[in-house]
C-alpha cells in the first residue's frame, strides 16, 4: 500500500498509511521524511517512491474514519472559502 498525504485542520502535512495518521517531524537530506503517529509515539519514514517503513508497533488500533473526517473537513473549509452564497443556503446545497 502506498502513502497518502493530506493536510491537518491546522494546515500541517500528514501521512495516512494503513489506517494510521502521522505528523511530519522533519525532512531528511536524502528526500525521505520522518513522521510520528498523532496518537502514540510510533515513527515512520516515507521515501520518494511513496514507500513507508514503520519503526514500532502502535499502541492503538487503526482508524480509517480519521482520514475520511479530515478530508470532509478540508472539503467543507475549501467550499466555505470559495462559495459566495449565504451560509444557510450553503448547508442545503451540500
Characterise this structure.
This is FLYWCH-type domain-containing protein. It comes from Rotaria sordida. The structure is a single chain. By secondary structure, the chain is of the alpha+beta class. It has one domain: Single Sheet (N-terminal domain of TfIIb), CATH 2.20.25.240. It is built from two helices and six strands, in the order E-E-E-E-E-E-H-H. The two termini are 31 Å apart. The model has no long low-confidence stretch (mean pLDDT 82).
Topology:
Blueprint: E1 4-7, E2 13-17, E3 20-27, E4 33-37, E5 43-46, E6 52-54, H1 64-82, H2 87-93
Antiparallel strand pairs: 1-2, 2-3, 3-4, 4-5, 5-6
CATH class: Mainly Beta
**CATH structural fold name:** N-terminal domain of TfIIb
Range of strand content: 25-35%
Number of helical elements: 2
Can you count the beta strands? 6
Terminal residue distance? 31 Å
CATH architecture annotation name: Single Sheet
Which properties best describe this structure?
94 residues, 28% helix, FLYWCH-type domain-containing protein, N-terminal domain of TfIIb
Quick gist of this model?
This protein is an alpha+beta fold and 94 residues long. The protein has 2 helices and 6 strands; from the N terminus they run ββββββαα. 13% of the residues are buried.
Amino acid at each position: 500500500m502506498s502513502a497518502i498525504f493530506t493536510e491537518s485542520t491546522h494546515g500541517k502535512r500528514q501521512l495516512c498509511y494503513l489506517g494510521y495518521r502521522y505528523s511530519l517531524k522533519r525532512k531528511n537530506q536524502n528526500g525521505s521524511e520522518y513522521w510520528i503517529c498523532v496518537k502514540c509515539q510510533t515513527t515512520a519514514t516515507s521515501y520518494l517512491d511513496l514507500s513507508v517503513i514503520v519503526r514500532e508497533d502502535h499502541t492503538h488500533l487503526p482508524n480509517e474514519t480519521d482520514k475520511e473526517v479530515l478530508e470532509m473537513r478540508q472539503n467543507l473549509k475549501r467550499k466555505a472559502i470559495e462559495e459566495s452564497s449565504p451560509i444557510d443556503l450553503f448547508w442545503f446545497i451540500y
